[in-house]
Specification:
Length: 296
């Protein structure tokens, strides 16, 4: 029988790991080891290590954590066990809060529509804190009432809420959920945290709404680069934003300069001249087009 470390290594292989896991699951000893691996998901040790990693550098929701190989093996173990009906719900619920995105994703796939609102909140907070959002749709679809949605979003800290707000735009939700999502978006346009207001404005479908317009302009002043990059394209047609776009063309952040220059794609020449102002400016300036090559 393979050791736990050997099984972890086998599950981490890019090819054939699922088939290897299925073969192990057919053997009682192999299944026991897979379950032992799955029980590591969401452990206090893994969460503490991920938090320490976050503290070492800039916070980014798209960064894969350092334990990619171990996390991938745990995710594969959960996938195999769930496919065989051998994954206990308590293991899956704890996995929803694991720092590794694919561990959370496999837990959501296994739980699907049985995900209670309090567990959906655990999952969504982990998504906002540690990783990307590929599985969030499945997590939020588990909500069935407007009260569930408000209970999930309402108590969130601004650090998480600025990301969670983006998930209030699901068009295929039931009518009550869509209506509650719309009400929440309008409320969050007046949130005391500028990041949340900006994210709500970027998610809101009605760009002509005065509250949305004001929040979009506000979005160009928040410190989070990802919000400013997204907002600048939405406000290119708004004369009130032209001084801010003009300043963005000279911003030290090359990504913001690129976003500012790209915002001209859908505006006519008179508007372009108005944005550039009396001093003209030059969109062909390398400072506007250098973009991602000089990321720091």
């Amino acid at each position: 029988m393979l050791t736990k470390q050997e099984i972890l290594a086998a599950l981490a292989q890019p090819w054939g790991s699922f088939e290897a896991g299925k073969r192990l699951a057919q053997d009682p000893e192999g299944s026991a080891v897979l379950l032992e691996i799955a029980r590591d998901a969401g452990s206090a040790e893994r969460v503490a290590a991920a938090d320490a990693s976050l503290a070492e550098g800039p916070r980014s929701p798209w960064v894969m954590r350092r334990d990619e190989e171990t996390g991938g093996s745990i995710a594969r173990a959960i996938e195999v066990l769930a496919g065989e009906g051998l994954a206990p719900p308590p293991v899956l619920f704890r996995a929803l809060g694991d720092p590794h995105h694919y561990v959370r994703y496999e837990a959501v796939c296994a739980l699907q529509w049985r995900l209670p609102v309090q567990e959906a909140q655990v999952f969504l907070r982990a998504e906002a804190r540690y990783g990307s959002y590929k599985a969030t749709k499945a997590g939020l679809e588990a909500l069935t009432t407007a009260e569930d949605l408000r209970a999930l979003i309402g108590p969130m800290d601004p650090d998480d809420l600025q990301f969670a707000v983006q998930f209030l735009s699901f068009k295929h939700w039931s009518a009550p959920l869509q209506q509650e999502a719309c009400r929440l978006l309008r409320e969050l346009l007046h949130h005391p945290d500028g990041r949340v207001r900006a994210s709500a404005a970027l998610t809101h479908p009605d760009g002509d709404d005065p509250a949305v317009r004001a929040a979009l302009l506000d979005a160009l002043r928040v410190p989070e680069p990802w919000i400013r990059w997204a907002a600048i394209v939405r406000v290119a047609h708004d004369p009130a934003a032209h001084p801010l776009i003009r300043a963005a063309l000279r911003d030290p952040d090359p990504r913001l300069r690129m976003a500012a220059s790209e915002s001209f794609a859908d505006v006519d020449e008179p508007t372009t001249r108005e944005i550039l102002g009396e001093d003209g400016g030059d969109l062909s300036d390398p400072s506007c087009s250098r973009g991602w090559s000089d990321r720091t």
